[in-house]
Task: inverse folding
């Protein structure tokens, strides 16, 4: 069995020298994650890092289950937020405020890291001065074996791998950022993002805008335990699409974060609609085409524009998985398109997202209260 | 006007202005607590006299008098002998009133 000293030497001489002080603060925000939190925190504690070199801070976002009790078994600090759900952006910011480390790692309460994930992310950050934030990508196989979870996980993975190494892809699933860079960028936007959605992509964009280096490491993968079903995937896509269109700007974000799953879903819609439009126009000159022919042409257009996604599914899971996922993919794309349209309409009618009137009033008078009033970045 | 109303809410014992903090010191069986360790941790806090300190022990603790002298209002949580460190942490967390709870091993590493 390797001694503690030799184990850390294996994970990098650089880290070995840093064991005397807290270098890294691992911030885990959680809400009703009783079923996964133990596995998540056990994996973090199993990281190939000297125990003294890192601290674990769990911020509980008003859970109604036993998340706090589980957190107590593993964490160095537990923050108990009360009241209504404040969102992961808010919770992670509270964790960073208490952090003693110069480097902050964010790990989702449904993400299991490998023993070398955080050390390798740290090494990338410390050995490459041009990089200020680095994230791991999704494992191709989801922690949950059901079909929809596998489909969704692969879709997330597809975008990350096609556009890895560039763009504002700071992934909160498992990402490491220099504390100074995080603070200078204005932390997470807890003002606008009170539910889990695009807050990490938005942070990545701000980091890039401030001249910071943000990269995604395709060779570092983490396993997501969340079990998805059709309804939860649709809800996720609906929420992300609305936030993207209403608060972030579709075209601006597509330039800086091309690997985001919403762009994987929507990028192919425009050519599909163009092809369909052209075919419908052409059909006007064909005497009474059969309805099934029209339907077939529409499906063929969608299939052709999504060919890279289907090919990716076939390569990683086999042909039958790719065939079976095709109808689901089309349905999810339709939801994504509706969400974007809704977001654009909401933006035109109501403007950007903002907290409720009470929160805005508290913020305006600079009220000191615990938990603190959300702040603008 | 709004500010005055808010101040009134605080005076009536409504929401707090600052988080309540707790420090849990976990002391496994047959270990002696290090008061210096606890004092060092408390010295880093600006309002250290307002922190609830809970000593969670497995079995009957020995030599906690020094810690009791240094920490006013020390709460001692006695768990049966053989209780694991993780169980002690969980038990103590259930008793901790703080919004921010720091968990500390009571023995020097």
Result:
């Amino acid at each position: 069995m390797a001694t503690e000293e030799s184990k850390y030497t294996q994970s990098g001489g650089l880290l070995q020298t840093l064991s005397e002080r807290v270098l890294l603060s691992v911030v885990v925000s959680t809400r009703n994650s009783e079923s996964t939190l133990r596995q998540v925190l056990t994996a973090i504690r199993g990281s190939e890092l000297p125990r003294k070199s890192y601290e674990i801070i769990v911020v509980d976002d008003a859970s109604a289950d036993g998340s706090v009790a589980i957190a107590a078994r593993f964490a160095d600090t537990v923050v108990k937020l009360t009241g209504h759900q404040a969102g992961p952006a808010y919770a992670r910011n509270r964790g960073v405020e208490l952090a003693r480390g110069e480097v902050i790692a964010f790990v989702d309460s449904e993400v299991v890291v490998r023993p070398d994930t955080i050390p390798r992310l740290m090494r990338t950050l410390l050995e490459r001065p041009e990089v200020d934030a680095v994230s791991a990508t999704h494992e191709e196989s989801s922690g949950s074996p059901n079909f929809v979870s596998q489909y969704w996980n692969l879709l997330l993975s597809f975008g990350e791998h096609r556009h890895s190494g560039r763009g504002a892809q700071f992934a909160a699933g498992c990402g490491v950022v220099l504390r100074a860079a995080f603070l200078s960028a204005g932390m997470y936007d807890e003002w606008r993002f009170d539910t889990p959605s695009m807050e990490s992509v938005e942070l990545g964009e701000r980091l890039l805008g401030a001249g910071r280096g943000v990269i995604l490491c395709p060779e570092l993968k983490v396993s997501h335990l969340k079990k998805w079903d059709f309804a939860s995937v649709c809800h996720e896509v609906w929420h992300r699409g609305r936030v993207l269109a209403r608060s972030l700007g579709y075209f601006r974000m597509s330039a800086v974060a091309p690997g985001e799953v919403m762009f994987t879903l929507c990028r192919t819609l425009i050519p599909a609609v163009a092809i369909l439009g052209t075919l419908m126009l052409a059909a006007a000159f064909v005497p009474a085409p059969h309805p099934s022919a029209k339907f077939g042409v529409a499906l063929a257009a969608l299939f052709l524009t999504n060919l890279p996604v289907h090919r990716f599914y076939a390569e990683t899971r086999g042909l039958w998985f790719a065939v079976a996922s095709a109808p689901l993919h089309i349905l999810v794309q339709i939801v994504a398109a509706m969400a974007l349209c809704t977001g654009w309409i909401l933006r035109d009618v109501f403007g950007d997202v903002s907290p409720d009137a009470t929160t805005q009033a508290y913020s305006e008078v600079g009220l000191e209260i615990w938990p603190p009033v959300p702040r603008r970045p | 006007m709004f500010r005055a109303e808010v101040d009134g809410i605080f005076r009536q014992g409504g929401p707090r202005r600052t988080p309540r903090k707790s420090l849990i010191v976990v002391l496994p069986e047959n270990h002696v607590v290090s008061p210096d360790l606890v004092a060092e941790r408390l010295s880093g806090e600006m309002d250290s006299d307002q922190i609830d300190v809970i000593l969670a022990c497995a079995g009957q603790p020995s030599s906690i008098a020094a810690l009791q002298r240094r920490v006013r209002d020390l709460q001692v949580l006695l768990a049966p002998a053989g209780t694991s460190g993780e169980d002690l942490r969980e038990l103590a967390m259930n008793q901790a009133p703080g919004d921010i709870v720091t968990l500390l091993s009571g023995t020097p590493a």
User: Anything to note?
Assistant: Residues 37 and 108 of chain B are 7 Å apart (CA to CA). The two ends of chain B are 54 Å apart (CA to CA). Chain B has one domain: 19-105. Chain B touches chain A through 25 residues (CB under 8 Å).
